[in-house]
């Protein structure tokens, strides 16, 4: 995805940082030089890059970091925080604002092909489902009849109503009819999908501005294609200057390798990124969480929120014991089982894994195995069907025992094998991390 590609670049930077005792000023400068290159390669605009690196230097160079016994962790946190700031701060994930008198008008704007119509359908589905809103969709695209039909189809899929098409009406007339209909039939939300153009032009801007003036939308959401990188930033700037936007939806984050657009668009417009489009299907709409995204951009996993959430849920003493065992390379299946339990408390396993540093590759393998709560429970069951000896030394488990364990836990031998393989991967990863001198990082992360 967008963020993983950027993340893997930055991971290299931090790999090199690990294993040094304390960070000197020169270390910070070295790191920042590489951070800057990584961000530029990821298509972050130069002024944004300068801003972030300046902030990081300011915070990193100084007593706190140099005296710290956990330099890697410090730098991760400082860069992370700077990225979060650049993405709009911790509280940015507010989603669509519906706090207005019904019907709440939402105006969708953007270039043709950006995913505007699809996103309108996605938002309609989300508001109907999650928020239990009565949603009316209306296409104002009188230039392309196909666009109106497309929205009609999407409305049907999202099980919301679309405004009947009346040929010959202007966008303004359609918008007004939509609002009248919504008032008369007590709709909660009206989503107005405006016409796109292949490029920014005055006619498009005037049309959108006229609709905006008449309808006074509560949200004006700009839809931009993340794949277009720097162009997306220019589009955002133009729409914001000429029409004014209250939020940005970035689409195609599923297929793109440039994470920088998110940082730049936020910086250039000041408008928050509210949602991400991550696929063609109507449910492929994600909330935008700056702290999560920053963690993914860093490729270090979201250590910060892992620390925060772990502190709330993990039993301190157990965590310390676990961390000590991990460091000594004594991580056993018993530890794994108790970790599974903690993970169960914290949310999804794949979400949790995404937050562990260095586990990106393993995570994608695990996701291939369709990892979820059911599997998590099953894994716990498999482990509890083993003898204590086996849990401490899984190498003892031969084929006949695997069959017994599978039968005892209501699973298949493949599932037992998969668990053992996963466990082994995890143990290998921990060994590698210890070798890289990351002890401080892990200890700090879990304790
Ligand atoms: P519009 O011209 O801006 O209304 O764009 P459309 O909504 O018609 O989308 C154009 C194409 O992009 C369609 O084929 C969509 O299925 C596809 N699309 C929209 N959003 C996403 C997304 O988040 N990810 C991917 N992979 N495709 C998307």
Automatic annotation (TrEMBL):
One of its GO terms (molecular function) is GTPase activity. The keyword S-adenosyl-L-methionine does not apply. It is found in: Cell inner membrane; Cytoplasm. GO terms for biological process: SRP-dependent cotranslational protein targeting to membrane. This is Signal recognition particle protein. It is a peripheral membrane protein. It catalyses: GTP + H2O = GDP + phosphate + H(+). Composed of three domains: the N-terminal N domain, which is responsible for interactions with the ribosome, the central G domain, which binds GTP, and the C-terminal M domain, which binds the RNA and the signal sequence of the RNC. GO terms for cellular component: plasma membrane; signal recognition particle. SUPFAM superfamilies: P-loop containing nucleoside triphosphate hydrolases (SSF52540), Signal peptide-binding domain (SSF47446). Its main location: membrane. Belongs to the GTP-binding SRP family. SRP54 subfamily. NCBIfam families: ffh (TIGR00959). Its EC number is 3.6.5.4. Residues 272-285 form the SRP54-type proteins GTP-binding domain. Involved in targeting and insertion of nascent membrane proteins into the cytoplasmic membrane. Binds to the hydrophobic signal sequence of the ribosome-nascent chain (RNC) as it emerges from the ribosomes. The SRP-RNC complex is then targeted to the cytoplasmic membrane where it interacts with the SRP receptor FtsY. Interaction with FtsY leads to the transfer of the RNC complex to the Sec translocase for insertion into the membrane, the hydrolysis of GTP by both Ffh and FtsY, and the dissociation of the SRP-FtsY complex into the individual components. HAMAP family: SRP54. GTP binds at residues 110-117, 193-197, 251-254. The keyword Cytoplasm applies. Pfam families: SRP54 (PF00448), SRP54_N (PF02881), SRP_SPB (PF02978). It comes from the Bacteria. Part of the signal recognition particle protein translocation system, which is composed of SRP and FtsY. SRP is a ribonucleoprotein composed of Ffh and a 4.5S RNA molecule. It is an enzyme of class 3 (hydrolase). Keywords: Cytoplasm, GTP-binding, Hydrolase, Nucleotide-binding, Ribonucleoprotein, RNA-binding, Signal recognition particle. SMART domains: AAA, SRP54, SRP54_N.
């Amino acid at each position: 995805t967008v963020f993983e590609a950027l993340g893997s670049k930055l991971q290299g930077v931090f790999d090199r940082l690990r294993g040094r005792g304390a960070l000197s000023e020169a270390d910070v400068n070295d790191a920042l030089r590489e951070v800057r290159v990584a961000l530029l390669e990821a298509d972050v605009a130069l002024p944004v890059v300068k801003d972030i690196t300046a902030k990081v230097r300011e915070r990193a160079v100084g007593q706190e970091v140099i005296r710290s016994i956990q330099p890697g962790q410090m730098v991760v946190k400082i860069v992370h925080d700077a990225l979060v700031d650049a993405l709009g701060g911790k509280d940015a994930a507010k989603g669509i604002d519906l706090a207005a008198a019904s019907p709440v008008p939402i105006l969708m704007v953007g270039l043709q092909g950006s995913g505007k119509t699809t996103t309108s359908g996605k938002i309609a589905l989300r508001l109907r489902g999650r928020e239990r809103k009565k949603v009316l969709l209306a296409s104002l695209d009188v230039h392309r009849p196909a666009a109106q039909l497309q929205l009609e189809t999407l409305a049907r899929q999202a099980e919301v109503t679309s405004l009947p098409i009346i040929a010959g009406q202007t966008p303004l007339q359609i918008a007004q009819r939509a609002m009248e209909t919504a008032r008369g039939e007590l709709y909660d939300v009206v989503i107005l999908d405006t016409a796109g153009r292949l490029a920014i032009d005055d006619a498009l801007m005037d049309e959108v501005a006229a609709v905006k003036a008449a309808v006074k939308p509560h949200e004006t959401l700009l839809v931009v294609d993340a794949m277009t990188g720097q162009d997306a930033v220019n589009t955002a700037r133009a729409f914001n200057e000429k029409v004014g936007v209250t939020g940005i939806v970035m689409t195609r984050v599923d297929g793109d390798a440039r994470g920088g657009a998110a940082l730049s668009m936020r910086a250039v417009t000041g408008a928050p990124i509210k949602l991400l489009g991550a696929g063609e299907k109507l449910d492929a709409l994600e909330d935008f969480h700056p702290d999560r995204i920053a963690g993914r951009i860093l490729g270090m996993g979201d250590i910060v929120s892992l620390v925060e959430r772990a502190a709330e849920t993990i039993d301190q003493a157990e965590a310390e014991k676990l961390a000590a065992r991990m460091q000594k390379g004594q991580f056993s299946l018993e530890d794994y089982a108790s970790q599974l339990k903690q993970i169960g408390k914290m949310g999804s396993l794949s979400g949790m894994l995404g937050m562990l540093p260095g586990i990106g590759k393993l995570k994608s393998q695990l996701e291939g195995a369709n990892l979820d709560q059911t599997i998590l429970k099953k894994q716990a069951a498999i482990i509890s069907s083993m003898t204590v000896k086996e849990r401490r030394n899984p190498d003892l488990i031969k084929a006949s025992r695997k069959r017994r364990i599978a039968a005892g836990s209501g699973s298949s031998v493949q599932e037992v094998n998969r668990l053992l393989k996963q466990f082994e991967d995890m143990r290998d990863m921990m060994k590698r991390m210890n070798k890289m001198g990351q002890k401080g990082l892990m200890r700090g992360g879990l304790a």
